[in-house]
Amino acid sequence: MAPPQGPRAPLEFGGPLGAAALMLLLPATMFHLLLAARSGPARLLGPPPYLPGLEMLWSPWALFLCLAWLGLQAALYLLPARKVAEGQELKDKRRLLYPINGFQALVLTALLVGLGVLARLPLGALPEMLLPLAFSATLIAFVGSLLLYLKALVAPASALAPGGNSGNPVYDFFLGRELNPRICSFDFKYFCELRPGLIGWVLINLALLMQEAELRGSPSLAMWLVNGFQLLYVGDALWHEEAVLTTMDIIHDGFGFMLAFGDLAWVPFTYSLQAQFLLYHPQPLGLPGASVICLINAVGYYIFRGANSQKNTFRKNPSDPRVADLETIPTATGRQLLVSGWWGMVRHPNYLGDLIMALAWSLPCGVSHLLPYFYLLYFTALLVHREARDEQQCLQKYGLAWHEYCRRVPYRIMPYVY
Ligand SMILES: NC(=O)C1=CN([C@@H]2O[C@H](COP(=O)(O)OP(=O)(O)OC[C@H]3O[C@@H](n4cnc5c(N)ncnc54)[C@H](OP(=O)(O)O)[C@@H]3O)[C@@H](O)[C@H]2O)C=CC1
Ligand SMILES: CC(C)CCC[C@@H](C)[C@H]1CC=C2C3=C(CC[C@@]21C)[C@@]1(C)CC[C@H](O)C[C@@H]1CC3
Question: Of the N and C termini of the chain, which has fewer Cβ atoms inside 10 Å?
Answer without folding.
Answer: N
